[in-house]
Amino acid sequence: MAPASEAPAQTAPASPAPSSSAAATPAQIAQIVETEFPTYDGDKSGDLIAAEFGAWMKKLRTAQDPAVDPESADVKSWIDQAYGAADADKGLARLIEWAKGRERPTVIAFFGDHLPPLGPVYVETGFLANNVAPRKEPPDQMLKHRNTPLVLWSSRSGPAEPLGAISPALLPYHVLKAAGITHPYYTGFLGALSERYRIVDRNVLFSADGEATPDWARQKEIDPAIRDFRFLQYDMMFGKRRAGPDFFPETVNKLVAHTS
Q1: Would you state the pLDDT for residue 37?
Q2: For 115, phi and psi rounded to 5 degrees?
Q3: CA-CA distance, 21 to 10, in Å (whole number)?
Q4: What is the CA radius of gyration of the chain?
């Protein structure tokens, strides 16, 4: 979602082609993976190469839709998308395992960007009408189409509690909080803002309890918290940085980097 706040970070990539049956639960998916994984792990390496993964996905797709051509370009695009997501998950797991072995406290924030998608799979599966979600749409559709994965992990406390859908502009607050760091703007101002709003987009606001306010910028009265949020952003990026001493002291008194 927009400059003052991009799209909320939090859901999974597009799912397989629409079906009349209900979507599988995480527990059901885990059971399928545990049961069928050994069948497609041809070399018994404990890992699936692209060809092994592709064979498995073709079976799942044809089981869901017997009329589909498993060798079609659409199915290949869907498999590439699924393999890319699985590979990203595997990479994140390796990164966390590495961080667990560090003596230095570490925080990892892992989230996806909603644009561009991996190929045309969103259109091919019917998730979107076009390759890119509309700039403006009803709040429930915006949440559905703009959410991306978000994982926050700390070597001090492990995975953070699910944050729900939030604006990336609010992510620094959660990262610094997980690290045990305080800052006038990133934990002070954004911390107070996050208690009132979880998504700040140019077209819609979502309050902390999920209530949507479309076209908020056109209203005569704007919440002072949102007004100050916009003023601070403009001042520090394009203005005279008058907020620097109070909210960004590191930009006034240059800090000397050091290692411990």
Answers
A1: 80
A2: -140, 140
A3: 24
A4: 22
Check residue 249 and report its DSSP letter.
G
User: Is it the case that residue 132 has pLDDT exceeding 90?
Assistant: no
Here the tokens at position 141 are: 């559709």
Report the residue count for the chain: 260
**107 near 152, Cβ under 8 Å?**
yes
Residue 79 in tokens: 């498999």
How many Cβ atoms are within 10 Å of 250's Cβ, its own excluded?
10
Structure-model confidence comparison of residues 84 and 26, the more confident one: 84
Q: Scanning the structure block, which residue is given the tokens 């799979």?
A: 121
Distance separating alpha carbons of residues 230 and 50, to the nearest angstrom: 46
Provide the CA 121 distance to its chain's centre, in angstroms.
18
Q: Global pTM?
A: 0.75
Q: Over range 177-204, report the average pLDDT.
A: 95
Q: Name which of 157-161, 213-217, 233-237 the model is least confident about.
A: 157-161
Using alpha carbons only, give the angle 195, 200, 203 rounded to the nearest 5 degrees.
145
